[in-house]
């Protein structure tokens, strides 16, 4: 393959970019870059009734955060623009007229009330009403109305739609890269609306016209569009398109539990993000995305890439550039991929371990400000190295390293209960004296071991109480690494604070 490869991601600005859509964008991007092709962003904004303010900005911002920069878009136009469907009206007008002239489409003047009446009459007979080859000539359309009457209706401003004239009793053989040939009899496809009297095309019509005009070579989209493939195929044929795009319908992303595809409600139910970046609607609470919850874009991309695709080996951790090199259609699965929130966190944890410390040092500098100045760069790097293995998200950073910068003021009652039958205050006072003794600056661990043996306190109990005084609880990285970084003076001060806490009890 070569640079003639052109793919598009074509979302509608009717809400935030869901991770299902983000995965579609990702697979389009990977395929384009693997083959030195072009990744195009097209905004399909013809549905004005469902338009949601801020949606386009959310889509663009989410792609940018994930590193999926389009080669062509409304903000980086090429020679195939405009890249918003609302700005391509003249193209659709010409295209629909072409189909009308070829008698592949026709005007229909049936009102909403007319159609409801037809449906009711069919239901009484136990039939399903379908606007198509069986009854189109008995309805209010240009196939059975005279030219003068049609012209009169249009001049008078009577509302109309343009319907596709679906061929009768024709076998439509569609090709899908993942699923092979899909055969459908045209009789099961009704005469879909392509164009409305307000000058706006429907999705089915506009996406075919745009894909032809933009030279799209591969249409990579979700499985939910597979039932629409025969219609789109017939529209291409109606335009006598000599070379259709290759179609790839991606498997669904499934709920963590139960049946059906992943939805926004699943995120709310199970407490995991379903958007790359935060989303806020008017008068509604903000929904935080992966970015705001402390996920790295590389981890989100990595996780999504393996939902419905595998590289053919056991490798799981990929950078974006590695995914570009590895991606191909052969690795795609036909069956749906179950979303696993815990695996999602694991990917983020793994990518955090691979991330340069400088990414985290700026967070610490901002969070702890003056306290951060007490450490040099070498010490800061050491702190980050110690806590990295404990991080699931970047947002955990401040919490897991707080004790390096702030003296504990609350001590875990749960941790202290483990020492309720010993003289904790006596132990802590002795440990404080030992640490103060400058002669014992070296080999602190060994000196504490000797002290615990002399007093018959138990080495584990001594270390546990010391950790609680330093950290506030029994968690955290190596105790002596912590003491080395915070300094012995700070350590003694914190021991005194715990003693005071215990004396008040």
Instruction: Give the CATH superfamily of the largest domain.
Output: Glutamyl-tRNA Synthetase, Domain 3
Helix content: 40-55%
- CATH topology group of the largest domain: Glutamyl-tRNA Synthetase, domain 3
Which runs of at least 5 residues are low in confidence (pLDDT < 50)? none
Radius of gyration: 33 Å
CATH class of the largest domain: Alpha Beta
Strand share of the residues? Answer: 5-15%
Distance between the termini: 75 Å
Major sheet characteristics: 3 strands, antiparallel
Shape: elongated
- Count of the separate structural domains: 4
Which features does this protein show?
mainly alpha, Glutamyl-tRNA Synthetase, domain 2, two-stranded parallel sheet
Describe this structure in words.
With 505 residues, this protein is mainly alpha-helical. The chain folds into four domains: 88-205 and 222-250, Glutamyl-tRNA Synthetase, domain 3 (Alpha-Beta Complex); 264-353, Glutamyl-tRNA Synthetase, domain 2 (Orthogonal Bundle), CATH 1.10.1160; 356-405; 413-503, Orthogonal Bundle (Arc Repressor Mutant, subunit A), CATH 1.10.10.350. It contains 20 helices and eleven strands. The strands form five sheets. Strands 3-4-7 form a three-stranded antiparallel β-sheet. A two-stranded parallel sheet has the order 1-2. Strand 8, helix 7 (229-238) and strand 9 (246-250) form a beta-alpha-beta unit. Helix 12 (357-368) crosses helix 13 and helix 18 (459-471) crosses helix 20. The longest helix is centred in the first third of the chain and has 16 residues, at 19-34. It is elongated. The model has no long low-confidence stretch (mean pLDDT 94).
